[in-house]
Amino acid sequence: MLTDIKIRTAKPRLKSYKLTDANRLHLLVTPAGGKLWRWSYSFDGKQKGMAFGAWPKVSLAEARLKRDEAAALLDEMRDPATAKKLKKEEALEASRQTFERVAREWFETNKVRSPPTHRSRRRRSIPRRSASARDRHGRSGSIGVPSSALRHSARPA
Asked: What angle do CA 61, 63, 68 make, to 5 degrees?
C-alpha cells in the first residue's frame, strides 16, 4: 500500500515506473518528474485503464475514492471510462443549452432596438450559433456576442 511519504519521496528515473496501491491503483512516475494516478481494470475481456489526475492536485485519498467509484460502476457491469466520457458530454451539452438560453434572453431584452426583419433573422440564427460554436473536432471555441449586438446594447435606452 502506498503512503504519502512514499509518494513525496519518489524520484524520477530514466524510464517511467509504477508505485502500486491496492486494487490495481498505481502512481506512474515519469522521467520528467510527473506523478500520475492510473487505474487498470478489465471490462468485456479487455484490459483497460483510467487516469485520475496528477499528484499533488489529486491526493492519495481522492485517487482511492475515484478508484472505488469506478469499481462500483464496474460491479454494475458498466465501463467506467465510457461513463466518464458520457458525463463530460452531458456537461458540455448543458453548457451549450445555457448559451442558447442566454442568447434568447438577450434577444428578448434587446428586440425593441432593431427593425423587425433584423429581429427575425437574429432569432432564427440563435440555434445555429450555439451549434456552430464547435469546431470539427468537437471542441468548443470562443462564443462571442455578435458585433451588431454590442453596437445596439451600447446605446442608451
From this structure: 95
Q: Is the pLDDT of residue 16 over 90?
A: yes
Q: Which of 114, 87, 102 is nearest to 143 (CA)?
A: 102
Size of the chain in residues: 157
Q: Please state the three-class secondary structure of 82-136 as a single string.
A: HHHHHHHHHHHHHHHHHHHHHHHHHHHHHHHHCCHHHHHHHHHHHHHHHHCCECC
Closest CA to 43 of 76, 17, 15, 10: 76
pLDDT level of residue 117 (50, 70, 90 thresholds): low
pLDDT of residue 39: 94
37 phi and psi, to 5 degrees? -80, 130
Q: What is each CA distance from 132 to 28, 89, 127, 128, in whole angstroms?
A: 39, 16, 9, 6
pTM of the full structure: 0.59
Contact 69, 49 (CB under 8 A): no
Q: Which of 6-20, 65-79, 80-94 comes out lowest in average pLDDT?
A: 80-94
Secondary element (H or E) of residue 68: helix 60-75
> pLDDT by residue (tens digit) across 140-156?
544 444 545 445 444 45
Residues 110, 105: Cα–Cα separation, whole Å? 9
